[in-house]
Amino acid sequence: MTAVQPSPKHQKSKALKPGSRPPAKELCSECGLCDTYYIHYVKEACAFLNQQIATLEESAHGLSRNLENPDELYFGVHQHMMAARKQEPIAGAQWTGIVSTIACSMLDRGLVEGVVCVQNTPEDRFGPMPILARTKAEVLAAKVNKPTLSPNLSVLEQVEQSGMKRLLVIGVGCQIQALRSVQKELGLEKLYVLGTPCVDNVSREGLQKFLETTSKSPETVVHYEFMQDFRIHFKHEDGSIEKVPFFGLNTKELKDVFAPSCLSCFDYVNSLADLVVGYMGAPYGWQWIVVRNQTGQEMLDLVTEQLETQPVMSRGDRHAAVQQSIPAYEKGVTLPMWAAKLMGVAIERIGPKGLEYARFSIDSHFTRNYLYVKRNHPEKLEAHVPEFAKQIVSQYQLPES
Ligand SMILES: Cc1cc2nc3c(=O)[nH]c(=O)nc-3n(C[C@H](O)[C@H](O)[C@H](O)COP(=O)(O)OP(=O)(O)OC[C@H]3O[C@@H](n4cnc5c(N)ncnc54)[C@H](O)[C@@H]3O)c2cc1C
């Protein structure tokens, strides 16, 4: 692979200087685009300056979502969904390591020359350090979530300069929207996009506050997840698991912890990735796979033999719980821990499961985010909220102001 000069158009553009105010101002999700000469395209590409999910769905998948189809309305364009887990999980991965396994397999078989992913900094296990990985060892070193805003696209300049022609990018929705928008400028023959869902992300300082407010031992947390059993599971250095019910969260303290970009985001399900690997539409303990197009199927096929799978399922009715959660969140209601635990047990028994749990989570976040944009950026509301999200939010009664 030979090092090449960036195209003349890009040589003229300069990345944002460290410390300067980003074009999306407080709504910047630090996706990394503006750390490169691709800042040239930011007005069009940034998910918070120019919401264009439907147009990009059309170019990525050949069609945008059919709002009449209830599954597409919620989960985006897809060929099929399933629940899966690795027969032999990767130790230390966020779930069973399906994402890392696909990426390794693609390198192994020469489908791609590099993988954009995010390792952690040497001094901080949660500090994001995006890389352009060229080996399986580098991909595996990126396993597990860095639960903070991460400038994954900051390594895009290296792609063009390296002369790489076949690339896999792993990322969350805002990163992938910007990527799709500049994809034709990268000089690639083939781009593969492996996405994860994402919600309620935080800055590194916000993460610290969240850990300190919620865990008994914030400094030993190595991994955490908001689980389908309505509890946060914190895994500690000694392997122990601490479970905190969602309903026991200190909502008042945590209201301002989420990044403004995440409070304004409606792409929870990573609509523009070829393949999405999350957990929220799967039964407890399983990962959730959404194959959006033929490229996504090609990626999944590489690892199918290593997976145990089952069809997606759906049980329960989320509507009443979502409607009740709206005023509770507004008032910052926090239950005493005994009541939160009791409520957690009850809701685990009778609450929404599988795809209905995913809809519960999407509805709760979209109603909250709609109110956030309406109150804080009313001038953006109409263009920024995609049609599918408006339809989802319209099922609920929201406060007038
Ligand atoms: C910030 C965040 C929030 C999420 N929220 C949800 C959710 O609400 N619902 C849901 O169903 N799934 C969510 N996911 C996805 C889920 O937690 C798992 O990441 C996914 O199921 C893959 O698990 P795995 O074991 O296959 O991944 P692993 O094999 O452990 O690989 C994880 C991959 O994630 C990438 N990554 C890590 N941190 C980031 C980051 N900050 N930005 C971009 N890429 C990153 C790494 O490069 C690595 O390749 C979220 C992921 C992230 C990063």
TrEMBL record:
Residues 1-23 are annotated as: Disordered. Residues 165-312 form the Coenzyme F420 hydrogenase/dehydrogenase beta subunit C-terminal domain. It comes from the Bacteria. Pfam families: FrhB_FdhB_C, FrhB_FdhB_N. Residues 81-157 form the Coenzyme F420 hydrogenase/dehydrogenase beta subunit N-terminal domain. GO terms for molecular function: oxidoreductase activity, acting on CH or CH2 groups, with an iron-sulfur protein as acceptor. This is Coenzyme F420-reducing hydrogenase, beta subunit. It comes from Oscillatoria acuminata PCC 6304. The lineage of its organism: Bacteria, Bacillati, Cyanobacteriota, Cyanophyceae, Oscillatoriophycideae.
